[in-house]
Amino acid sequence: MLFTSLDYYLFLPIVALVFFLTPVRFRWAWLLVASYYFYMDWNPWYIWLIVGSTLIDYTAALQIEGAANRQRKKAWLWLSIVANLGLLFTFKYFNFLSGEAAKVARLFQPEFEAYHLDILLPVGISFYTFQTMAYTIDVYKGFTKAERHLGRYALYVSFFPQLVAGPIERSRDLLSQFHFNYQFDYQRIVGGLQLILWGLFKKLVIADRLALFVDEVYGHPAQYEGFTVWLASVFFLFQIFCDFSAYTDIAIGSARILGVRLSQNFENRVYVITSFNKFWRGWHITLTNWFRDYVFFQLTPMGRGMAWILVATVISFTLNGIWHGAEWTFLIWGGLNGLFVALEALLSKPADRWLSQFGLSKGKPIRWLVDFALFFNLAVVSIIFFRAVNIQDAFMLIGQLPKISPIQLHESIADIVGVRDFLIAAGMLIFMDVMHRLFRGQDIDAYFRQIPWWARLGFYVLLINLILYLRVPEQQAFIYFEF
What we know:
The protein has 19 helices and no strands. The chain has helices spanning 6-21, 27-40, 47-66, 70-105, 125-141, 150-158, 160-163, 186-219, 227-257, 276-282, 285-299, 305-324, 328-356, 365-387, 391-400, 406-416, 419-439, 444-448, 453-470. Helix 3 packs antiparallel against helix 4.
């Protein structure tokens, strides 16, 4: 059940209507039933993975909190971690590692065959396993209390708006909300609908249109070079922002209708990259914070000095890359971003002093342009590894970048999507950025409460018409459903 499908917009109002008609003490049960139904629409059998993970972590947290000694607490914590990482390993990484091991084995035994599990990756498994692991770790560290109510804990694991692709919520932020008495709030529901509409615009009008160009270039890497590869990579950076932030907007909006507030996952203009440290504070915020809290902060006490902190940074980002998928491309993408963040932390002050000698001190417009040109293009190069089908394609595309030909770029645009569709995509990106400037770091709901009703109405009409007339007919799944 895609967030862009008609089925979802029949499902959501029914869930909301029954929710507000249900007595308060039973509302959690209705949301749990709706969430399980939502997930079973993808694959009914995989609901048992969520149920299993829920029962293991629910039990582990209670045992951790009630354990008489540290060894027993640690044993239950490791049970939770091993169980969740075991699920991820089996469904996401086993076939990849088996294949790589087979390549090594064939050096000594050419006829060696890799063992392959005939299974599909369960939707959302990377998200809900990290969410439940965070819960047991927080209980172990004393940051949160173990939840006694199994039903409400099960809802925390499976809450349908954020089940498939986040945000990855902490128990102190989400689980506690399922104990509240929600009242119908017209303004909150309007705010949720605004977020859903804005998300649909970003997904259907911008992300899916950019995908037409990106998919062609990355699907045939030997045929394109220079500006075409660069533009496809720029477009992919915007595509994945529009695609994933659209999912997040729809998730947050859907939850808000039900009285639940989810975490922000993207800053509005995070794509204006003038610093990798700043970029990663605004990009996939809940996952970045997860690796900061549960990996980076655990690694830093193991060594001393700035050098070890930089190593811990690279390790954390490399694991972030591996979380995205079982491919060398994701490992390299994560490692590169960790390296960029580490080098910026190491070199930013000396670079500031050196550039100031040439009149390029911080705060000047020309310095902003220099920073943007450097960091944005580094992000564009690194995103090639994220999007490429395999490591060979990634290096081929990077090798094609220096072969610059403006004529070939024009021909590629005309052949791949047509000048009209290209101009529509560019125009909609500009429109989105203008709106993000107006939002000034707020979400759409907060912004629209400050403007007259007729301006809000005009914007709704405009967005609906843009979606109806400029959407791409071929419906595409959200990119992060693959992870």
